[in-house]
Write a structure and sequence with these properties.
Length: 230
Amino acid sequence: MALFIVTDRYFITGTDTDAGKTVATCALLQSARRQGGMTVGYKPVASGCIATPQGWRNSDALALAANSSLTLPYDQINPLAFGEPTSPHIASRDENRPIHASMLSAGLRRLESKADWVFVEGAGGWFTPLSDSLSFAQWVTQEQLPVILVVGLKLGCINHALLTALAVKQAGLPLAGWIANNLSEKVHRPTEYLDTLRQRLEAPLLGVIPWLQDPGNDTLAEYLDVSLLK
Ligand SMILES: Nc1ncnc2c1ncn2[C@@H]1O[C@H](COP(=O)(O)OP(=O)(O)OP(=O)(O)O)[C@@H](O)[C@H]1O
Ligand SMILES: C[C@H](N)[C@H](N)CCCCCC(=O)O
Ligand SMILES: [Mg+2]
């Protein structure tokens, strides 16, 4: 009898760049680790890297690596790294290194073969371009990844959250859950905004991440629950 090992794969998008995708993905990795099994974060495309003797290094990818139970070479966590913190299609063009969907997929296949949980962090928001003919959304649709939406709580986030949820739905992908992330110590009308988002987003709220003095800490799992994804 054939034994199929099924990896849980999720794509983490956000209402915007700086919405808290990396913080939330680290929380997801920590929560999944508590459930057991091997976990890994994947940042297929990173724009905004520092040059090191080993090559470009991106802080998101390093944070995901630090919160993964698998220890892997950097380029398996982040195969496509670019220097300038701009939209990937611009950084890629400037560095004359085209991004193709097959590159992102090859990296994902490798991680799926090793991990029980793969959390894939996007770049910016849902429709971020990767080239003149490819957006992150198109690749996620090709891969049929369930989506987790990180809502960076602030004035204006309701519209961005609902637009993103609609685009995910129109792509035919499941919105597996959403995470509310407090982007400041005192966010705009927190109770009313959470209530509004809960009413309008057709997906489970996985958790609320408060404003943290140290968002890079290892106790993020307490703010969300990956078992709500099942
Ligand atoms: N809950 C929080 N408490 C305190 N600081 C936070 C919180 N969430 C995010 N931040 C800070 O806000 C900034 C943006 O967060 P983060 O890097 O997770 O965003 P992102 O959506 O991953 O952005 P990108 O599009 O660049 O990947 C970071 O400096 C992060 O440390
Ligand atoms: C540089 C930034 N921190 C992210 N890595 C990439 C953000 C892409 C934004 C694209 C857009 O303008 O919508
Ligand atoms: Mg990030």
